[in-house]
Amino acid sequence: MSLETPLHRVQGLGSAHSGVRHFWRERVTAAALIPLSVWFVASAALLGGKTEAEVAGYLQHPWNALIMGLFVIVICVHMMLGLQVVIDDYVHHPGQRIALLLLNRAFTWVVGGLSLVALARLAVG
């Protein structure tokens, strides 16, 4: 038997007020990935069997470089958000959770940054 009121028991354990924003970010990035993925698959099919120089020439076109850059950014953000949900749901030790969330962000920044640098170097020629 506890002398705490029901209100006192739940204080501090309620919503962190970030779940809806996270939910919508996941949905928006998923929706943005639909046309970007269609473009990516079509480009990959078009470039299948082409030489490295022909692929570089394709990515040197401003629109293709821009769309590929958007694809990289959106897929990295979507990956980060999805992994964050998995970490939040399945890692129960607070120290491990924080470390994994930081690693998730760092990995996303490194992968996205290196991909964009490589794309920029290709686009510039």
Notable traits:
mainly alpha; 5 helices; 3 helical TM bundles of succinate and fumarate reductases
Overview in brief:
This protein has 125 residues and is mainly alpha-helical. Helix content is 82%, strand content 0%.
Overview of this protein structure:
The chain is mostly helical and 125 residues long. Helices cover 82% and strands 0% of the residues. It contains five helices and no strands. The protein is elongated, with a radius of gyration of 21 Å. The termini are far apart.
Shape verdict: elongated
Per CATH, the class reads: Mainly Alpha
Radius of gyration: 21 Å
Proportion of β residues? under 5%
Weakly predicted, low-confidence segments: none
Number of helices: 5
Q: Summarize the amount of helix as a percent range.
A: over 70%
How do the SSEs run, as a string of H and E? HHHHH
Q: Please, how many domains? A: 1
* CATH H-tier superfamily: Fumarate reductase/succinate dehydrogenase, transmembrane subunit
Major sheet summary line: none
Using the 3D structure, state the CATH architecture: Up-down Bundle
Distance between the termini: 73 Å
Question: Would you tell me the overall average pLDDT?
Answer: 90
- The CATH topology assignment is 3 helical TM bundles of succinate and fumarate reductases
